[in-house]
Amino acid sequence: ASFLGALGLSQLRAGELSAAEINLLASRDGIAALENVSPDLVLASKGNLAAFYLFQGELENAAGLLEGSGDAVALNNLGSAYHLAGNFREAAMALTKARALADSTLSEHHPLRVQILQNEACLLIDAGKNQAALERAREAGGAALDLLHHLLEFGSEGQKLDFRRTSDPLSQLCSFGASAEEIGEMVLQTKGVVLDSVLGGSSISERAPLPAGKIFIDYFVFQKYLGAGRWEQCYGAVLFGGEATRWVELGKGKEL
To answer: pLDDT under 70 in the chain at which residues?
Structure first.
């Protein structure tokens, strides 16, 4: 039954949806039929099937599988399902529980901690609480920087590759109205963390000011939040130097 669950997830990632559903259902039912089965195994099988329903947009089915869970991953997914279904109150409750559980049970540098904060920020922006969303995005960005520093020192190659997809520290700041100075500072801190890892120094604290009359321009890709869980790849640039730091959204990725 556990093998069928792993096979179903693999098929889901490959886009083989019919086969994935058959195997994930069989895994859940097979594990539920076992005697003296571990509660964690039951929860994992339900979570795998819920991931399929979330992918399919079947939010009520996903929420039904995840309700009542005491697992931070499941609660985070439940919060996302409620959010996308427009049930903001239930989403906030699930994400608050997920964050509290993650804080008490997961390591300081676990990627899920960043993801929960980012999900809370998206929920807040969709609920019209723009300032609270920006504050949560700032918190998520700081946690993402700490995670990046940890992964560059101790993480596997797979974890490093996953970081950009799951823990991007810039996209929410660019989407939720952060100032040019704040976005620019995040760009520099991110580069500083990477340089510190490569050079073994302290580039963040030893950053030198630009010479008078010089301008430095940094281009980057970010995901712009469109609301209701939808994102769009965009390009941006930060201009350092002159009278003030400037932030420019250059356009959509598919147009550039």
So the answer is: 200-208, 256
Q: Any idea what DSSP says for residue 236?
A: E
User: Residue 180's Cα: distance from chain center in Å?
Assistant: 22
Q: Is 157 helix (H, G, I), strand (E, B) or coil?
A: helix
Name the CA dihedral angle for 23, 29, 34, 35, rounded to a multiple of 10 degrees. 160
* Residue matched to tokens 């922006």: 125
pLDDT tens digit sequence for 207-223: 667 777 889 999 999 99
Q: Where are the alpha helices (DSSP H) in the chain?
A: 2-13, 17-32, 39-56, 59-66, 72-84, 88-105, 111-126, 130-154, 157-166, 171-175, 180-199
Q: What is the pLDDT of residues 27-62, one digit of tens each?
A: 999 999 998 888 878 888 888 898 888 888 888 888
Pick from 98, 41, 87: nearest CA to 64: 87
Compute the distance between CA of residue 54 and CA of residue 65 in angstroms, rounded to an integer: 11
- Residue 95 neighbours by CB under 8 Å, 6+ apart: 75, 76, 79, 116, 119, 120, 123
Q: Which region holds residue 110: left if phi is over 0, alpha if psi is between -120 and 50, else beta?
A: beta
Task: Report whether 155 contacts 123 (CB < 8 A).
Answer: no
Give the separation between CA 102 and CA 244, rounded to whole angstroms: 39
Q: Is 67 helix (H, G, I), strand (E, B) or coil?
A: coil
pTM comes to 0.80
Q: What is the pLDDT of residues 195-209, one digit of tens each?
A: 887 776 555 545 667
